């Protein structure tokens, strides 16, 4: 088996390094000597993935967190070389959405014995993402968590960022146009999901499937801060759709626009400012998943 592994050495810090070593040891005991490349930047990851495809390995493995996977996917999209996943980050929503173990021994075993599954991606211009994109309060929280929260990671980091950003945030006027439903009004935030969760387990798109050719749109309209705080815990359980004011629907193409200057993040990474059109790309990527699926 020929594997090319693209490793983000910054992912997960010391714990991530230990996980990576464990996974590599499992592969080597099975007789697989992977070709390993370490990334130096997000752009370098995309370039490494594109070059890896030219060698036609059995799989290109992304070793890192959801941000790492985002850039590797953007280098692989358009090829038929499967993606493998070694989760070294703190959120790992993409792996969980695919049923790929986050424990290093089991993840390496899935690479050795798994099968390729075709999944959808979401596209914004030249960029694709695998999990969920968000705009509004969501993107403010994501930027704060990425840049200013250093002492915790994953779900705790996202929760802390929510508390810190909520005090200063105000709703913005947003227009959503799609082939599923249209909306115009003040919102706290809007997410467009390809898979169920983001932010280390926030199940904003609980009905999403990775192979249905659809995007799951969740609109959180303007509400009081106390009401929002009471609502947030239900999103971690995927039960927020019971709120009478939440709008949730599916579409294959969604356009977001606003008179305000709003940023759009996907897979926890900045993509662009609005306006933005997001469309599903059915079966755009092959991913190695455990055989039991």
What are the defining features of this structure?
Tumour Suppressor Smad4, alpha+beta, eleven-stranded antiparallel β-sheet, 293 residues, 2 domains, 15 strands, four-stranded parallel β-sheet, 8 helices
Any overview of this molecule?
Helix 2 crosses helix 3. The chain has 2 domains: 3-113, Probable inorganic polyphosphate/atp-NAD kinase, domain 1 (Rossmann fold, 3-Layer(aba) Sandwich); 129-282, Tumour Suppressor Smad4. The longest helix is centred in the first third of the chain and has 17 residues, at 13-29. It is built from 8 helices and 15 strands. The chain has helices at residues 13-29, 42-54, 66-76, 93-98, 104-113, 137-148, 155-166, 225-236, and strands at residues 3-7, 35-38, 59-64, 83-87, 115-124, 127-129, 132-136, 172-178, 183-193, 215-221, 247-251, 253-257, 263-266, 269-273, 276-289.
Gap between N and C termini: 21 Å
Give the helix/strand class: alpha+beta
Number of helices: 8
Shape from CA axes? globular
**Mind describing the biggest β-sheet?**
11 strands, antiparallel
Helix content, binned percent: 25-40%
Succession of helices and strands: EHEHEHEHHEEEHHEEEHEEEEE
CATH architecture field of the largest domain: Sandwich
CATH class identity of the largest domain? Mainly Beta
How many beta-strand elements? 15
